[in-house]
Each structure stands twice: as C-alpha cells, then as structure tokens.
Amino acid sequence: MPAITVQGAVLGAGISGAAGATEESVDLLPRGHRVGKWTVGEPIGVGGWSTVYAARPSGRAGGPDLPAEVALKIMPTAGLAPRQARRIVESAHREVELGRRTGHPRLIGLIESFVLGAPDRPALDGAIVLVMERAAGSLRELLDAGVPEADRGRLIEGICAGLAHLHRAGWVHADLKPENVLLGRDGSVKLSDFGLAAELTGTHGYAPPLGTLDYLPPERWKAPLGAQGVQVRPSADIWALGVVIHEVFASGTSPFAGATPLARGAAVQEYGEGRAPLRMDHAVPPFWRQLAADCLAPTHEARAGHTADSLLGRIAAARRTPRRRRIRPRGRARAALLAVALCATAGAALSGGTPRDDPARPTGDLTVFNADRTCRSRPAREPQCSLGLAIDPMAPYTPANVVPIRVWHGDPLTAECRLPHGLPIVDEDGHRSTQWFRVHLPTGSTPPTAWLPAVRTRTHPSLPDCPHPSP
Ligand SMILES: Nc1ncnc2c1ncn2[C@@H]1O[C@H](COP(=O)(O)OP(=O)(O)OP(=O)(O)O)[C@@H](O)[C@H]1O
C-alpha cells in the first residue's frame, strides 16, 4: 500500500504537486487506506473542491478520546493553478480557524486537520484533510426526499441557533444552503462548510467572491470586489435563511421564480430594486411566511433588525404559545420519535429505500439526482426532466446511446458495480466525474442493465468495480 503520511498542520500548508482536484475525486482514497490515525471508508459526498469520506480510528489509534466514526474532507491542491490552490488553502484556514474558536452543538465539530504527504500518489500529495464529526445526511437530501411536516419547524430552529452562535462569535457563514446543513443521527442540525466564512471586523467581514447564486441577497449582486474580497454582513446569512425556510415548507422550491440559478438571481435583483413583489408559496404557513418575509427584506438595512437571535426568540415564543403547539416537540418520547422519523427519511434518501434483490450478489441502492433544481421541485414526471441511462459508458452520452427507459429525480435504482473510469460527464452544476454505476432495469428489459453517470446521484454505495466494458 503506498505511503501516505501526515506532513504538518493546515496552518502553514504549502502548495505543491501535480494532478486534478475534483476530477475523479471520489477515487482519490481507496477504502482501507490509512490517513494519519484514520482508516478510510466509503465516499459520502463530493463538493466543488473536495471529497468527503467516512473513516474510523485505525487499530490502536481508537479509544475513548476518538469518535468511532468521522468524516474526512480531502481538498487536493496538487496540479491546480496557483490562484485556485491558494483559494483552497485559504478556505481550509478559515474552516480550521472557525472550528478552533467557535465550537457549538449546532456547528459540525472539527476534530483535527493536516496536510498529506504522498510522494507516490501525486493527486494526494499536499492535499489538505479536515477530520470532522460525521453527520448522517444533509438537509438537501432530506428536501429531495420530502421533509416530514412535524420536523420542519425544529430544523429551522436548529439552523437559526447555529447562525445565532456564529454571529455572536463574530463570524458570517456566507454560504448557508441546504447542502451545508447537516443532520446528526439523532436528527440534530449542524451547520457545516465554513470555507467561505468571514470574521467580522466591526460591522462586516470579507469573503471570497464566491457563494451559491440561489442564496445570495440582492446587495451581493452589485457588491464591489476589493483586494480583501467582497463585504459580507450577518444579514447575508439571514437572507439565505429566508430562502431555506421557504424551501423547507414549499417542497424545496425557491421563493424566486426562474429555470436557472441566474434567472432566479435576476428575479432576486428585480425584487431588491422594488420592481417585483415577494411571492411566496401558499404552502408556507403564516408564522413561517412572516419569518421568511422578514429574512427576505430587500435591503441590508431593512433586514438588519432581524438578527438570528431575534428570530430564534420569535420561534421560541411561538413554540410556547398554545396556538402554535403544532411546532412544539412534546416531551422526550415525541422528540425521540421525530429523530427516528428524520433519520429514517434521511436514510431512505441516502439509500434509495429499495430492497436488494439478490442477497448473494453485492448491490447498492442509489437515488437519481437531477442537478436542474426546477426539475427537482416538479412532482410530475415531465419528459423534459427525465434523465437517460447509457447503453455504453465509454461512448458519448447522447440520445443514441441511452436505453428507452427514462429515470427522474428521486427514483430509486439498484446498482451492482461501479466503473471508475468511463467517459467524463459534467452535470448542470459543473460537477465532473468519470465514474458510472451499472444499474438494474426492470425485469424483462433488454438489455437487463444500463449505466448511470455518478454525477446523476449523490449516493455512492460501496460496490465492487465493474469489469471494463468491451468496445
Ligand atoms: N461532516 C460530514 N458528515 C457527513 N457528510 C458530510 C460531512 N461534510 C460534508 N458531508 C457531505 O459531503 C458533501 C460535500 O461536502 P463539501 O463540504 O465538500 O461540499 P459542498 O458544501 O457540498 O459543496 P461546496 O463546498 O463546493 O459548496 C456535502 O454535501 C455533504 O453531503
């Protein structure tokens, strides 16, 4: 097994090496590899610049002081343009600084961080590793599966509590979105991904000119870019919270209409300039509608009074009001039931919930993921939202190379093996992967299997490699 060593702390990380950062990133670390005191398990998620793996303490490294399982966020720096590599190192510094100084039950815990030395694995050499508390899933997965009604208020309250702590500690998250709201096995909410977080100096801080378009407040679309980045204030997180509240109550849809993030961004700017009203889905109940409307006040000035602390106070007061009893968890037994329900839903979202059909052969459950958010929010199986399964993962992914059976976002599939190096596919969000899964088609189909590109799912079960398809 090639030697992977821990070179040093993240603060002081150098930039060196050769090879890609996100391309084929889930293949960076094979299962069973040792990284520092951790043994790598299955990949659990892929971000723009990182891959997250499950891991456990290796052999004797375990003990009462180490958690039984953790998440390793690997951020390769090798082979990147110097500016990109610097951005990753800076992003890791921010995560480490924030983790070191602001621990809280509503923020994902950072256990340690280090830089890898792997001279015989160029793609890993110089990679930054953050060892984090492991969550069971993310709010994005729960939204895709459908958030149980009874859990919605509790989830928003958890996000709000995390933001209130961050803001009190003098930080702005600057990238609040459902992907960065993780859920513990007990159903608890934990904010994560502090790579864009900005420390406040006075009323504002500076963040890199990045972020996720769907969660940017109107003022960010025109914010000037200075030498230190763009100015961000806690009110930017409050705006993002408003969007998330709407998504939680309105089946994952944004309050701003548009088929693409850019179109929704244009709608945000129109609203911010007073040229369009705020239109929320009727599914959002009155209390949460008012709260979301306050979070989505069109200017920083109008939003600034709605601090995370004040919103938290309103939620707590509503919980105490008998009229609002529906959002109050009733006692321990009720809370435990909610947690179980939440974990079950998160689990179903992660596994696809399909029983394995041949216990003798290893299979894994996948859920189809459509990167086009408008398709994710449509209940009907509209043709324009259908996705193709390829006949040949080595041939161009065109209509000529897909089976007649189509799949839609949220469909469960059973996979029997994975192909690490098929034709590279880039999804609508820019995620790129050469990985494919061979999936079962309904009984009687010819051929009996087809290929799903890994970018079309967020579940990555541990599966044997497929034999390379013959030309
Ligand atoms: N501590 C964790 N426990 C369990 N899963 C995690 C953990 N951290 C991240 N993940 C999963 O891994 C995925 C990738 O996380 P990461 O922070 O690298 O990127 P992201 O937030 O999805 O994307 P980006 O940072 O590019 O915006 C997340 O969406 C989440 O599902």
Automatic annotation (TrEMBL):
Residues of the Protein kinase domain: 38-315
Task: Using the record, list the residue span of the signal peptide; answer none if the entry has no such feature.
Answer: none
Q: Quote the EC number.
A: 2.7.11.1
Provide any one GO MF term from the record: protein serine/threonine kinase activity
Enzyme class (EC, first level): transferase
Q: Which UniProt keywords apply?
A: ATP-binding, Kinase, Nucleotide-binding, Serine/threonine-protein kinase, Transferase
Residues the record lists as binding ATP:
K73
Write down what this protein is called.
Answer: non-specific serine/threonine protein kinase
Instruction: List the source organism.
Output: Actinocorallia herbida
At the highest ranks, the source species' classification is: Bacteria, Bacillati, Actinomycetota, Actinomycetes, Streptosporangiales
